[in-house]
Amino acid sequence: QFPFGRRLPCDIYWHGVSFHDNNIFSGQVNKFPGMMETVRKITLSRAMRTMQDLFPLEYNFYPRSWILPEELPLFVAEVRMMKDRNPSWKPTFIVKPDGGCQGDGIYLIKDPSDIRLTGSIQSRPAVVQEYICKPLLVDKLKFDIRLYVLLKSLEPLEIYIAKDGLSRFCTEPYQEPTLKNLHQVFMHLTNYSLNIHSGNFIHSASVNTGSKRTFSSILCRLSSRGADVKKLWSDIISLVIKTIIALTPELKVYYQSDIPAGKPGPTCFQILGFDILLMKNLKPILLEVNANPSMRIEHEQELSPGVFENVPSPVDEEVKVAVIRDTLRLVDPQKKKRKDTQVLWRCGAPGPFPTAPVQHLTESTRLTPCSILCCRCQSLEQAPEASEELPEAALPSLCLKQVFPKYAKQFSYLRLVDRVAALFIRFLGVKGTTKLGPTGFRTFIRNCKLSNSNFSMAAVDILYIDITRRWNSMGIEHKESGMCLQAFVEAFFCLAQKKYKSLPLHDQVASLIELCECRLAALRGKRLVWGCG
Ligand code: ADP
C-alpha cells in the first residue's frame, strides 16, 4: 500500500479490481487488461459460441446460450424447433443479466414468452441459458464449485489450477424445476451471497460440513461411493484449459493495446474464479468465470440482532491462503535472480514456517535487492548469501498445479481463433487500438490475396460495413469506432465459407488461416529480398 505515493518501481503490483497502467513500465501486475470485459456473461457466451461452432463436441461443457435482446427471435425459433422435434422435451431456462453477479436479477423460465424485457434490471442485456436440471446432489442439496485458476502468462500460455476449491451449497433441498418452485432461489441458486440469508444457512466450522465446504471433502465422499474422481479432475482440467483457450484471442487484443510489444511495460498474471456445476453423471459444466474472485477469509456473523462481527472462516482460509501464497511463489521475481537475494527466508527465531501469506509490503518494508522481509517474524533483515537460501522444500508443497503447457499437445489444435486474432492484430496498424479500420481490413484482404473477380474490393467494403455496423449496434460500450475482434472473426468465417463451400466449418476456417499465413509469409519473404536488393 502506498498512501503517500511511490517513487520506485515495484516487483509486483497487486490491484484490487482491474488493470490500470498508471505508468507502470516494469514488474508484474496481478490483472490483465480487458479481463473484466472478456469474462462478462455476454462476452464469455459469445466466445464459447464461436468455439462451439468450430468444435461442438469439445465445447459441450457450456450450456446452450442466447444473448438478449438481440437473439430473442433466434431463441424463440430454436426452442420451438427443438420442441417440435421432441415433444417430450420440457426445458427450463435461466436468465442472467449481463455484468450481474451474486445472483443479481437472475430468474428461471419454462418458456421463451416468460422473458421480462422491461424494468430496470430486465432492460439490461442478458444471457438466457439452458438450465441444468439434473445437478449432482450432496445431502439432497444442489452445490457448485469455485475453483481458482492462475493465468500466469498469456504469451506463452501458462495455466495453473488450485488442487482444492470451494463447494457452495443451496439451503433448500433440490427438486427439478416446476412452475411451482421456479422462484425458490435457495433451491436453485448456489450463490453464497443469497443463501447466507436463508434460515438454513450453516457457517462451516470444518472443511466438510455446513453450507461452504472444500471441494476435496466432496471428492472424498464421491470417491468413497466409488466415483471415478480421477476422471472428474481430468474433465475439470480440460474444461479450464478449453475455456481459457476461448478467452485468449480477445485478451491478446486488449494486451497489445495496453502494453504494446517492444515498449517498456509490465507483464501480467491473474487469479480467476471458475464456477462449475457437476451434473448427476459427474460431467462438469461451466457456469461462469470471475475476474475478481473474492479472497475474503472471514465471514460476517450476527452476534445479536443487528450486531455483526467478522469471524475467521476455516474453509475459505484453507483454500484461499494457499492460492495467494503459491501465486506469489510462482510469480516471485526473485526466483529468477536467486543469486542476488531471497524473498522469503527463515530467520534464526524458533517456530514453524508459516503458511500465511506475507503481510502487505509498505514503502518502508518493500523488498530491495539487499533487504528481505522475514515472513515469520516480519522483521526486515539483510539478505543472506546465496548459499543460505531457503530450499523450496521448506515451504508447503504447491497447491497450484501446472496444466498448460504441460498438456499443450492435447489442446493446441483448439487454438484456431488465436491465429485469426493474430491476423487481426497484425492489421490493426496503429498500436493502442482494439478495432480495425476499413483500410486495415482492405490491406488484410489485399495482402492475403482474397479478392478476385467473384469477390471485388467493393464487395469487401460492403462486408466490412455490414458486419461492423451490426456489431457496433449491439449496445456494447464503444470508445473507438471500427471492427472489433468478434466482428472480424465473423467476417473471417464468412470469407472461409465463400472460399471452401464444400468443407465443414472447422475445415473451412483452418484452410483459410493456413492460406493467409502462407501468403503473408511469402509477402514477408519477398519484402526481405527486395530489402536486400
Ligand atoms: P452470478 O454471477 O450472478 O453468480 P451465475 O452464472 O454464477 O451468476 O449463476 C448464479 C447461480 O445460478 C449459479 O451459482 C448456479 O447455482 C445457478 N446457475 C447458473 N447457471 C445455471 C445453469 N445453466 N444451470 C443450472 N444452474 C445454473
Automatic annotation (TrEMBL):
Pfam families: TTL (PF03133). One of its GO terms (molecular function) is tubulin-glutamic acid ligase activity. It comes from the Eukaryota. One of its GO terms (cellular component) is ciliary basal body. The keyword ATP-binding applies. Keywords: ATP-binding, Ligase, Nucleotide-binding. GO terms for biological process: microtubule cytoskeleton organization. The keyword Membrane does not apply. This is TTL11 polyglutamylase.
